[in-house]
């Protein structure tokens, strides 16, 4: 569908120019961003370099409490590329930022990626083709990283075969299905599990497919040591996810959050992670930082045990009360997301 968005008259040369090139986008790409101006610019460049002739699309960047100049940078890029739009809002977390972006979108297909990723040449094409030839309501793409560049101080997503977590750095959803299940639940206390929660709700109304050819690159990005040491705090979100859908949680994660957090994380995953630090012994500083992170995770899980017990009781009551008041899902507790 085309729309007339510009009619200009050049009186000096006595001719009229009609510009009918602007089209209603088929795909809306939503990017929540928080103070990552450099990697966000790299992502926008990758989108503009690879997708020009695939199909009509728009890019909506939601600057979520950015104070690093990201908003100004996006607006400057948008001056040359009108398919890019910037929305600024106060920092309330990626779940709300994504919902805000979808509300402003015009496409029937919503594609999500993150501000620390890079899209590949076939990404948008694969999204459109798989929706056209299947009945899927959602697609999960392959997310790759440079494993050789990973260290204990980097953050990266490595999802080569699909994940029940449905990482929203690389997914696409039909917009009507997105709103049919209520969008992202903004009540998760941390930026964790809101994507899995959305996927599990989508599975109740249609099919989700993993598409290996729908590839995004997530380069290893250096994180602050202090942030990595606090990583275990996000596991509070396991309790809300569990009580919202016990059956799905049991089939995809564990019998309950306690088994997942302490049975798997405390006694299995952290020891394996610690063992993996051995390869950094020729880099003493990196090795020491990696060991420190693992030790801090063990200490955190011990320290957080009383808090998790309270969270268990609180979310159990909240979900029970919510389900008693209305069917379906909704925003359980208005709360600022802690990054």
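Q: What amino acid sequence fits the structure above?
A:
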């Amino acid at each position: 569908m085309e729309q007339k968005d510009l009619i200009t008259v050049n009186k000096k040369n006595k001719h009229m120019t009609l510009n009918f090139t602007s089209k209603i986008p088929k795909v809306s790409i939503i990017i929540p961003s928080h103070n990552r101006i450099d990697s966000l610019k790299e992502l926008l460049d990758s989108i503009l370099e690879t997708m020009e002739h695939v199909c009509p699309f728009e890019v909506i960047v939601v600057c979520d409490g950015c104070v690093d100049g990201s908003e100004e940078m996006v607006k400057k890029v948008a001056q040359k590329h009108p398919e890019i739009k910037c929305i600024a809002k106060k920092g309330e977390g990626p779940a709300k930022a994504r919902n805000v972006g979808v509300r402003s979108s015009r496409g029937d297909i919503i594609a999500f990626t993150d501000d620390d990723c890079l899209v590949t040449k076939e990404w948008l094409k694969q999204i459109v083709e798989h929706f056209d030839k299947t009945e899927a309501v959602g697609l999960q793409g392959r997310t790759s990283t440079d494993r050789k560049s990973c260290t204990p101080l980097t953050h990266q997503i490595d999802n080569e075969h699909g994940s029940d977590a449905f990482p929203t750095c690389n997914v696409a959803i039909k917009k009507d299905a997105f709103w049919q299940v209520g969008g992202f639940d903004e009540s998760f206390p941390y930026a964790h599990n809101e994507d899995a929660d959305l996927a599990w709700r989508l599975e109740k109304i249609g099919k989700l497919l993993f598409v290996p050819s729908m590839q995004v690159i997530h380069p290893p990005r250096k994180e602050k040591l202090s942030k990595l040491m606090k990583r275990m705090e996000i596991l509070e979100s396991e309790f809300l996810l569990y009580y919202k859908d016990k059956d799905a949680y049991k089939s995809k994660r564990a019998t309950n959050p306690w088994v997942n957090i302490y049975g798997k994380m405390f006694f299995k995953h952290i020891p394996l992670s610690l063992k993996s630090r051995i390869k950094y012994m020729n880099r003493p500083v990196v090795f020491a930082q990696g060991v420190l992170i693992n030790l801090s995770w063990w200490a955190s899980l011990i320290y957080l045990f009383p808090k998790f017990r309270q969270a268990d009781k609180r979310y159990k009551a909240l979900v029970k009360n919510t389900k008693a008041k209305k069917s379906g899902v909704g925003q359980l507790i208005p709360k600022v997301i802690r990054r």
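Q: And what stands out in the fold?
A: DSSP finds eleven helices and twelve strands in the chain.
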